[in-house]
């Protein structure tokens, strides 16, 4: 049996070497907001890594929530992941076309939330794969369903009530992964938020500052540490990450994982949920 994955990242060279391993399962997690006129599933159909299947974060999500791609329950995640051909013991590799910022990091986090650590993200994503002249294909992949066991880890998820407590009482540092304009409210979001800005006490560590601008590869540990410390984050104290819809915040969680912080929670509802609650409170006042 192959050794389990031991880190949050694999390189294109490593994956090319292990592509034919029988327990490797690759997920193309590319996602785009509808306003971009891009579609992750269509991009997958156009070209994808050999053997990969598409993971749709809007499909493997809570069907009863009108917030963007909220976590599904344990049983739903296990069923849908099993239908993608992933079973217990498989080594799962996730990638997308925006260096983790368009959903691969969220899928990495989702697997960990549901008790599965044998998962890693392709460093630099699809672009790094093709830049290294590794093969891509158009052939459809129809995996055989497998049995996947999910076990929810609540400590890796921050709920709305928990975030209210964090804002009111402190105790955890809030790291917002959005760009600076969206963080300070000077730039509109792709989501139709009525209120812009950020949660009280939050600090800004944009997810795009955690990767090399040319290759999309995550920065080395020293540079990552400097990004967080420059923003005022104490890496020895509790941290929760947030963003617009609980996606790029997972890049923050992944970067912190690389710095030894495997306990960082992600606020699943993020600003989409927070600003809605603020609007409702203001209307009721």
From TrEMBL:
Protein name per Swiss-Prot or TrEMBL: Sulfurtransferase
Gene3D superfamilies the record matches: Rhodanese-like domain (3.40.250.10)
Gene name for this UniProt entry: sseA
One of the record's GO molecular function terms: thiosulfate-cyanide sulfurtransferase activity
Keywords for this protein: Repeat, Transferase
Positions of the Rhodanese domain: 20-138, 168-283
One Pfam family it belongs to: Rhodanese
InterPro entries: Rhodanese-like_dom (IPR001763), Rhodanese-like_dom_sf (IPR036873), Thiosulphate_STrfase_CS (IPR001307), TST/MPST-like (IPR045078)
